[in-house]
Amino acid sequence: MQDILKVKNFYKSYGSTVVVSGVSFEIAPNEIFALIGPNGAGKSTTLKTIATILSFDKGDITVCGLDLKKEPEKVREMISYLPEEAGAYKNLSGLGYLDFMASLYSDNKVQKKKFLDSAKEICGLGDKLKNKVSTYSKGMTRKLLISRAIMTKPKLAILDEPTSGLDVINAMEVRNIIKGLKDQGMSVLLSSHNMLEIEYLADRVAIIDKGKIIEFGTIDKIKKDNSAQNLEEVFIKLAKI
Amino acid sequence: MRNFFTLLKKEIRELLTPQMILPLILMMILFAAIGSFVGREAKKAEKPSKVIIVQNDTSSLVEQLTESAKSKFESEIVRGMSAQKALEKARNDNTVKAVFIFPSNFTALVASGDDAKIESYYLLRSFSSMGTKNITSTKIFLAGINEQVSNYLILTKISGANVSNLKNPVTAIDNVVVGDKLAAVSPDAVLGFVTQQTTFIPIILFIVITMAAQMIATSIASEKENKTLETLLSLPISRRQIVATKLIGAGIVALLMAAVYMFGFKYYIDGLSGGQATNITAEMKQAIGVLGLRLDLSGYLMLGGSLFFGILSALSIAMILGVFAEDTKAVQGIISPLMVLVMIPYLLTLLVDFNSVGQGVKYLIYAIPFSHPFLAAPNIFMKNYALVLGGIVYQFMFFLVFVFIAARIFSSDKITTIKLNFSKKKSQ
Q1: Is the CB of B245 inside 8 Å of chain A's CB atoms?
Q2: Which residues form the domain of B260?
Q3: Judgement on whether residues B286 and B376 belong to the same structural domain of the protein
Q4: Are B212 and B257 in contact (CB under 8 A)?
Q5: For A153-206, how does the pLDDT look when each residue is reduced to its tens digit (9 = 90+)?
Q6: pLDDT given at position B158
Q7: Chain-chain contact of B416 with A81 (C-beta, under 8 angstroms)
Q8: Is residue B213 part of a domain?
Q9: Same domain, B204 and B336
Q10: In which order are the strands placed within the sheet that holds A187-191?
């Protein structure tokens, strides 16, 4: 089966500062892949590049076989991106926001209704969707944004710190939503600082530091290779090097 | 009390931000520069105006009256010339502001105690305060003639002269010349009408352009502040569409604002003038029509086009400037260069006679795309259509270039990486 995402020898720099240097990985269909690393390692830059927000200097990136450089607009139809610190349009109601987003993906009324029904189910906000986004708590906004990101069932969902700033209950709900995505035929590229979350969600992991991948594989393999009990131990060991 | 001062210090520090200080400094510099420029132009305008005095009566009285004009004006005296020829001569010399014609029977009428008449023709070439300054000085000149003739009548004790004639022996037959059009009407009445009809145009232009610019810059800054920009950029829409919809959206709202302000201002002017602004006499209406000082459909289209492209030019610049603002608070400071560019033509067109400024300054003003809508109405009145249409073409080209730059920025990393934040908190 064709890989959903292929990143090969990817380089990105801001001026003279090299942020990502020769990163390569791929994501298979129905796979949750996590990119972890310390602050400033190049995770968000990688995610933003794949989300077509940033350009890149060197390398090849394809999404569902589409060249990111040559066909960014087609790539955007295949992906969905949830930034780390995302917000929604505050003057819209939750439902208005979802409706606006659904309209960008389909003109078809039936299809749009499907997207909206799916989003309503995912976010679980019920009648509160009629309220303005400006009245939402951080947890409610995050759930709204996640439902927006996956209501269209993208081939690849790029989620940057999806549970950032959420309380335990909200974070658990969001994790369960993400966990269920691969059963719906989606692949996920995930970034998080929460190692327990990664262990719970990810099929495979790449640890990135100073713009380079320093460890790669399934969680069990990485733990075994580094003689560690859990991913957090691996991370601490590798980060100290 | 200590808490009061601690709080007061905090309040002042919060309010006195670089975003607030920068526009203030820019405006101060701008006002100083414009003040100095207008001052120089005012000095130029104080120089005696050039007038043509036609003596179709060569009596010593007329000679004497003409002599007094020489001290007030740069006068060109011609003898035995028809009004038509004199006007032709005046039209060919841009510095001539008025033509006074002493008819051949002037002295005879004075001597017989009848009402003597001087034909006065005012050549309106500008509607700015300095461009119309000469009308006042010529009115003073005519008052002086009346006084001199009155003195002459008293001294010569002409019998049969009635009292009102002794007090006011000479009547000026006022005419106004605009381009090749001529109407027998008072220049004050014409200027009053034109001012009432056009004063609101630059004010509305100024408000609409600055508000439209602020709107689009805020729209981009709020996308950054509310963290919606990255999501927007990852959606299945092209960057060109994002740029276009932001521009058109702000343009539509700006035009709506312009319409609301125009209606509001029309009622305001009507209210101030007790409805006189729209209720003019039939003669005045006819004179205005003859002089071509009423905007017809093509005039409105040209003015509308100039305003539309002026707003679009402002939006395209503001869109680029908005990219630099990291939050809505920074917008005010970021768009202050644009405000300066709007303020310059706004003040200059209100105050300065554009015909008298140097070529360098003229081109500099023409280079500012917002100058054209400010200049459009007077240029349409003066039938300088080439300048109006040329201005629209220039504005359109300007808009295309800046939209292209905006689209390039939106298609590059710069949209998310460029920052020009003055906030102290963020820099920590």
Answers
A1: no
A2: 17-42+189-416
A3: yes
A4: yes
A5: 999 999 999 998 788 988 998 899 999 998 889 999 999 999 999 999 999 999
A6: 60
A7: no
A8: yes
A9: yes
A10: A79-82, A156-160, A187-191, A32-36, A204-209, A212-218
